[in-house]
Design goal:
CATH architecture of the largest domain: 2-Layer Sandwich
Number of strands: 17
Distance between the termini: 79 Å
CATH class of the largest domain: Alpha Beta
Strand content: 15-25%
Largest sheet: 7 strands, mixed
Radius of gyration: 30 Å
Strand order of the largest sheet: 3-4-2-5-6-1-7
Number of helices: 22
């Protein structure tokens, strides 16, 4: 190729001669040579994502990939299928975004027909987390190194995808495997975020892309799955346990110690979560240790069910909170001691919209909050208040003010039975938690949505259960005092939610006090709820 001085002399001579045809030919020749050189510069990173990340990202001083992130990136071109599990806080989404950008820019520069399919366990993970992360890191690319202008936000770096001349990076919901299976290109990358609960059909659709892929040359396919672990079930778990037929996946467990050494997780945070959730809990194993862990077999409510309910809440929130069918119910767990909180669980049909937390309030303050929450509602809204201790005063004062309140007494007896009718309950607390379990059980088409709250998750997944002898045998949920001893605090949030979801049954049944006294009088709240209060139990609307 001619030197700059020689090119300059040629241009001057052609301009002076007025030879525009030769001038255009020279321009096209130089442009082609420049493009080829630029492509060679970028495509040297085609199978070197670590080098791309080091040299093509504008890192601030002290920034860069962690050692474990480089290990994972380096494994992708070698093994083609890589699955990574680890604790919260690893920078998983950032690594996924960088992987997408490395793949897209190198294949585009090489003129290869390419596609990136991004999927996740929920659309929200794509639209709220992964795609915005791709956009964020795209703005930190060193375009001088790539030798091309920045992505156009009008035609290339779009709201939900990256669209270039030779290919595109596109999000696809994991419940639509037919769209994933339909992807075709000479170079394919599947990015599976929050892979722990991605359905098997999606994994099977992805595997189809490898049927014609080669380990050297085109066509080629890559798959990168990353997630915190969940229960020991599903394809992501099978990959990590090296199940037969899945040995061609390269697996990597990023440990808590690695994350701490990289400065991504603080040891203080890990220690606090051990105190909050318990070192032996599924939450601690999944979210801090990055290990698969089954929920305690004796737990009333498995962690995975609560996580799914929280995901449903996010979907409801993302949809601008449409009004659910069903009445408004306020579950009120009143603080008994100085360290406890008064919690108001705002239920709208099958959505617990929010938890309202207040510390160190007296009876009148709590009553005023209940009255304010229900005062604007048309007929049908009620509060369920724990009648033990301070809560009794809230109930009395609320009734004086003609506020519709249902009294909840956890130790009271109940004639309620399980959904299949085989078991009774030792008390109302057991019945309330079991009803909550049934509402969250995916086998029954779970629809209940719960707000994201770590303490709520802990409250709901900690209590255990047992069966007592008798006719019928009865389910006994762990007493509250025992839960307090294990948690080191009162499960206020969980109790408030359980009470809110139990309103249907309180409004439909007599209340049998622990001491054997019976109160079959219909309350104002029960009448407002629109159900009989002294007849036999009608079937629950949830069963």
């Amino acid at each position: 190729m001619a030197t700059l001085e020689e090119l300059e002399a040629q241009v001057v001579a052609l301009v002076r001669a007025g030879d525009t045809k030769s001038l255009r030919a020279l321009r096209d020749r130089v442009k082609a040579q420049h493009t080829s050189k630029r492509a060679r510069r970028v495509t040297r990173y085609m199978y070197d994502p670590v080098g791309w990340a080091r040299h093509c990202i504008a890192w601030d001083e002290g920034e860069g990939l962690a050692a474990y992130q480089e290990d994972v990136l380096a494994a992708l071109p070698v093994h083609r299928r890589v699955a990574v599990r680890g604790p919260h806080g690893l920078g998983k989404t950032a690594q996924a975004a960088i992987t997408v950008l490395w793949f897209a820019t190198t294949r585009e520069a090489a003129g290869i027909d390419w596609k990136v399919i991004m999927t996740a366990s929920a659309w929200r993970h794509l639209s709220v987390y992964l795609v915005p992360e791709v956009r964020k890191w795209a703005k930190r690319i060193r375009w001088d190194v790539l030798g091309r202008p920045p992505f156009s936000e009008r035609t290339e770096l779009l709201a939900l995808n990256l669209k270039l001349v030779n290919g595109a990076a596109t999000p696809v919901a994991s419940n639509k495997p037919e769209l994933i299976e339909g992807a075709h290109a000479d170079s394919l990358l599947y990015l599976i975020d929050e892979a722990k609960i991605v359905p098997d059909g999606t994994w099977d659709a992805i595997e189809g892309a490898f049927s014609g892929g080669r380990m050297d040359g085109l066509p080629e396919a890559f798959a990168f799955a990353i997630s915190t672990p969940g229960p020991p079930a599903g394809r992501f778990y099978d990959i990590h346990k090296r199940a037969p037929g899945l040995e061609d996946w390269h697996v990597r467990h990023v440990t808590l110690e690695e994350a701490i050494a990289a400065g991504r997780i603080s040891p203080q945070w890990a220690e606090q979560r051990a105190k909050q959730w318990g070192r032996d809990s599924a939450m601690f194993a999944n979210r801090v240790l990055g290990e698969f862990h089954a929920s305690d077999e004796d737990s009333v409510i498995p962690l995975s069910w609560v996580d799914a309910a929280i995901e449903r809440w996010h979907e409801w929130d993302q949809a601008s909170r449409p009004a659910p069918d069903g009445r408004r119910v306020l579950g009120v767990d009143v603080a008994r001691a100085g360290g406890d909180s008064t919690v108001l669980a705002h239920r709208l049909g099958l959505v617990v919209a929010e938890l309202e937390i207040h510390d160190r309030e007296d009876t009148m303050q709590t009553t005023a909050r209940v009255q304010a929450a229900l005062g604007e509602e048309p007929g049908g809204a009620v509060a369920v208040v724990d009648s033990v201790g301070v809560g009794g005063g809230v109930i009395d004062r609320s009734r004086e003010l003609r506020v519709p309140v249902l009294a909840y007494t956890g130790a009271a007896g109940t004639k309620l039975r399980t959904r299949d009718g085989q078991y009774g309950f030792t008390n109302t607390r057991s019945a309330a938690y079991w009803r909550l379990r049934e509402l969250l059980d995916p086998a029954f088409g779970a629809l209940l949505a719960l707000p994201p709250d770590d303490l709520l998750v802990s409250d709901l997944t900690t209590p255990t259960w047992d069966i007592t002898t008798g006719v019928p045998p009865k389910i006994k949920v762990e007493p509250k005092d025992d839960v307090v001893a294990r948690l080191g605090r009162s499960p206020d949030r969980g109790d408030a939610v359980a009470m809110a979801m139990y309103a249907d049954h309180l409004a439909a049944s007599k209340v049998h006090a622990p001491g054997g006294q019976r109160d079959g009088r219909p309350s104002r709240a029960a009448a407002r709820y629109g159900r009989p209060t002294t007849q036999g139990l009608p079937p629950s609307k949830f069963t």
